[in-house]
Specification:
The protein has about 475 residues and is an alpha/beta fold. The protein has 2 domains: about 250 residues, 3-Layer(aba) Sandwich (Rossmann fold); about 190 residues, Rossmann fold (3-Layer(aba) Sandwich), CATH 3.40.50. It contains 18 helices and 13 strands.
Length: about 475
């Protein structure tokens, strides 16, 4: 019997212009490409972004994962080097979104050149599925936030005129009115120049997704939130798994030796890793309170700090460590640090984190309890989810998000690393590690996504259900 002829499915992926979005898209691309040979279907992915974002990713390009440049229109004060959120001053974010929206015809021209079978797009570009539809191409929204956070925002937007309580009390920020107020702040960042109102981007992206929505999460952890999101949008929501990035090879080539040697000299479970993501910059006051709090905790700490490159930053970000600060109990690392290797080190006993979704997943994957200090966007919702799951051993008290005191930092860190609750917290962290590892290694989730995508574009009829 003749062997079934292999088909090719050409996929265009278009994440938002931030590495926190691009990295999950790239990892999903790798897994789709790796999954396809057994299914009589070869997948070729074209990952679209700006030159500023693609330059550091050049080594990921293969014959089946291709990086495609999208050149944004020129706008005053927004040179091509700033066509990325990395190092972008806060006041230029509306300009970046506007430039991206103005690039819709150029994206359409790329689709004409690439002739994809399907487009996978991010929520900030709700016009991408329209460009695809104009060419008879289906398009699917891939969400890189937690299902709990996404369901929360969609729920609040749907009930905007008459706020109703989010049906999961553990995720709520204090009842219907508080939830509505927080969501309103999230969508009120327009400066009057936006081509698409901020509040419309997510609903339109979900509405225009062809048939289903994909989401970066573990089904075993967020099943009820996946189901509720599906109910809200009236479409199937397909989990991809946590899409953990195996970056050990690239990290080994970078200067992490000093950090690992420092960790090697510490007792097992004695160190708290402190990091607030690659694109959040603390104010002078926040830096001062954090520095004092870490010293007051009397716990060894590894603090990863970042400062903006831009000369002008409307957020009032700190430019240096607090005057006179000398870390007596910790190691301060500026810029990059091998987060996964640190979390996996035997001396790492807790992770003081902003609760960005990727950091929450990495912490659970490493089996390290979190100390939650959410600052903005989806982070408070992720922090609530981490507490619900038992993944957070402690939470730093805040008057408002971003307003914390040194004494509360110290109290939360001590509790997580040396408190009576640490034994139960570490036991629960080990349980969650097994769950996340199982989901990350479950090829069936990617196979399901691949099957849904193939069905949309009439490819891979041999792909099993």
């Amino acid at each position: 019997m003749a062997q079934a002829e292999r088909e090719c499915m050409r996929v265009v992926m278009f994440p938002w212009l931030a590495h926190g979005h691009i990295n999950p898209y790239l990892e999903l691309a790798k897994r789709l490409v790796a999954a396809s040979p057994d299914d009589h279907l070869d997948v070729v992915v074209h990952l679209v972004s700006t030159p500023a974002n693609l330059a550091p990713l050049a080594h990921h390009q293969t014959d089946r994962i291709r990086l495609v440049e999208l050149h944004l229109p020129a706008l005053p004060g927004l040179p091509p080097a700033l066509h990325t959120t990395k190092g972008l001053p806060a006041h230029l974010m509306p300009a970046l979104k506007r430039a991206c929206d103005l690039a819709a015809p150029r994206f359409g021209a790329l689709l004409d050149q690439l002739c994809p079978d399907i487009v996978v797009y991010d929520f900030l570009q709700p016009w991408a599925p329209l460009e695809a539809a104009a060419r008879g191409v289906p398009a699917v929204h891939f969400n890189t936030f937690s299902a709990a956070a996404k369901a929360f925002v969609v729920h609040c937007l749907k009930n905007e005129r008459t706020p109703t309580a989010f049906p999961f009390e553990t995720i709520s920020l204090g009842g219907a009115d508080e939830d509505a107020k927080y969501t309103a702040r999230l969508i009120s960042r327009d400066d009057g120049t936006a081509l698409i109102p901020e509040r419309d981007r997510l609903p339109l992206s979900l509405e225009r997704s062809s048939g289903f929505v994909a989401i970066k999460t573990c089904a075993d952890i967020e099943r009820k939130y996946v189901d509720y999101l599906s109910q809200l949008v009236g479409k199937e929501v397909v989990p991809t798994g946590p899409l953990l990035v195996d970056s050990s090879g690239s990290e080994a080539k970078r200067d992490g030796g000093r950090i690992m040697r420092w960790l090697d000299g510490k007792e097992p479970g004695s160190v708290v890793l402190v990091s607030f993501g690659s694109e959040y910059f603390m104010s002078d006051r926040q830096m001062a309170q954090m520095a004092r709090g870490l010293e007051l905790s009397r716990v060894p700490y590894l603090w990863v700090v970042r400062f903006p490159n831009a000369e002008d930053d409307a957020r009032g970000a700190a430019r240096s460590m607090p005057r006179g600060f000398k870390p007596a109990r910790g190691l301060v690392v500026e810029g990059w640090a091998p987060q996964w290797r640190i979390l996996s080190h035997r001396s790492c006993g807790a992770f003081l984190t902003h609760c960005g979704w990727s950091s929450v997943l990495e912490s659970m994957a490493a089996g390290v309890p979190m100390v939650a200090l959410p600052l903005h966007i989806d982070q408070p919702l992720n922090a609530n989810l981490a507490v619900e799951l038992g993944a957070a051993a402690a939470r730093v008290k805040q008057e408002r998000f971003g307003e914390f005191k040194a004494e509360d930092v110290a109290r939360a860190v001590r509790s997580a690393v040396n408190g009576r609750e640490r034994v139960a917290a570490r036991r629960r962290a080990r349980e969650l590690r097994e769950v996340v590892a199982r989901n990350n290694g479950d090829d069936r989730q990617i196979a399901t996504l691949l099957q849904r995508m193939a069905r949309l574009c009439g490819k891979g009829q041999a792909v099993p259900n």
